[in-house]
């Protein structure tokens, strides 16, 4: 069956990449996002796409039905379900477009399949309950997951909520009914090492600056042999803690020895910073982060997009490999 897909909150096209990787039959008939910078990147990589710079609430039921889509892939705004977003849940205006879509689910003519991604925390929300209630009302079979890329052999932590749903008379063999699954039914190997995604001759502009080095003790530092990395957020390169891993060519033993010497000085002082500079700590490049998020090696950012914009867009994107594996389950 050749599927007709509507990609909502399309961002830089992670769902599009996942669909391509899945090798399933079908086409993205339309993509919708209100972010003009993300749309520039999307069109740069998928120039023939029917990409609409629209507020999703401006899409009428008739307009969607006229597309004859049977599949919706979407990653609604996550801020309403995070601590940084004050966890306002259904009271956050950024949920309005998703609530609008939920209200339409029983009115779509041909919709048979849904894949939805969001941040961990969504599973505890009122909006999630409204979504699941509507799926039940519309007689969708569904399964929820909390998954990390490390579950599918990718050396990165990015725990996210996923829901796959379809209208069917049969159930999945792996289904856990009311339970949220923490892994996929298929077994995957151990993650590759970070070395597999490293660029050569990385510019000095990616070296960690003094304003971050002064808080060096909170950095997550990894090497080429590491088989893990922390979640990269849109604040990467701007804050030291919890925004993503830092790379060094120095061995773990050298890193430990350097920090031991640095910590003989007061944290944040010039001597502390100068000692840590010996490690040549650097940020991962946007290309490297793309690869850690399983985007294809051919994917590129246009030169008009700044490095800051690249990281912000990546922080809001998805892991392509995880979604690709879920798509295979959805249509199994």
Automatic annotation (TrEMBL):
Keyword Methyltransferase: yes
GO cellular component entries: nucleus
Gene Ontology biological-process annotations: methylation
Signal sequence extent: none
One Gene Ontology molecular-function label: methyltransferase activity
EC number(s) given by UniProt: 2.1.1.204
EC category name: transferase
Alphabetically ordered keywords of this record: Methyltransferase, S-adenosyl-L-methionine, Transferase
Keyword Cell division: no
Active site per the UniProt annotation: 78
InterPro entries, sorted: C5-MTase (IPR050750), C5_MeTfrase (IPR001525), C5_meth_CS (IPR031303), SAM-dependent_MTases_sf (IPR029063)
Family: Belongs to the class I-like SAM-binding methyltransferase superfamily. C5-methyltransferase family.
Protein name: tRNA (cytosine(38)-C(5))-methyltransferase
Originating species: Papilio xuthus
């Amino acid at each position: 069956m050749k599927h007709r897909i509507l990609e909502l909150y399309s961002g830089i096209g992670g769902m599009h990449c996942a669909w391509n990787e899945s090798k399933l039959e079908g086409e993205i008939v339309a993509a919708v996002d209100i972010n003009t910078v993300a749309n520039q990147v999307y069109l740069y990589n998928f120039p023939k796409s029917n990409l609409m710079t629209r507020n999703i609430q401006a899409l009428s039921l008739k307009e969607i039905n006229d597309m004859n889509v049977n599949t919706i892939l979407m990653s609604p705004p996550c801020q309403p379900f995070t601590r940084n977003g004050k966890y306002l849940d259904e009271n956050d205006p950024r949920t309005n477009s998703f609530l609008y879509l939920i209200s339409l689910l029983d009115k779509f003519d041909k919709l048979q399949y849904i894949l939805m991604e969001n941040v961990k925390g969504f599973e505890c929300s009122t909006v999630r309950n409204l979504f699941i209630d509507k799926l039940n009302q519309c007689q969708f079979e569904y399964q929820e997951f909390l998954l990390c890329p490390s579950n599918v052999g990718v050396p990165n932590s990015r725990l996210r909520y996923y829901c796959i749903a379809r209208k069917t008379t049969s159930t999945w063999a792996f289904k856990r009914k009311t339970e949220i699954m923490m892994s996929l039914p298929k077994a995957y190997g151990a993650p590759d090492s970070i070395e597999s995604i490293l660029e050569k001759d990385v510019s000095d502009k990616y070296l960690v600056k003094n304003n971050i080095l002064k808080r060096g003790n909170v950095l997550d530092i990894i090497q080429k042999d590491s088989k893990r990395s922390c979640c990269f957020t849109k604040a990467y390169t701007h804050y030291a803690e919890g925004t993503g891993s830092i790379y060094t060519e120095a061995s773990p033993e050298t890193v430990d020895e350097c920090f031991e010497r640095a910590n003989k000085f007061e944290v944040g002082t010039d001597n502390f910073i100068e000692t840590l500079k010996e490690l040549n700590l650097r940020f991962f490049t946007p290309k490297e982060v793309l690869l850690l998020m399983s985007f294809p090696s051919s994917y590129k950012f246009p030169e008009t997009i700044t490095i800051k914009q690249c990281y912000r867009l990546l922080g809001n994107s998805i892991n392509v490999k995880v979604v690709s594996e879920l798509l295979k389950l959805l249509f199994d």
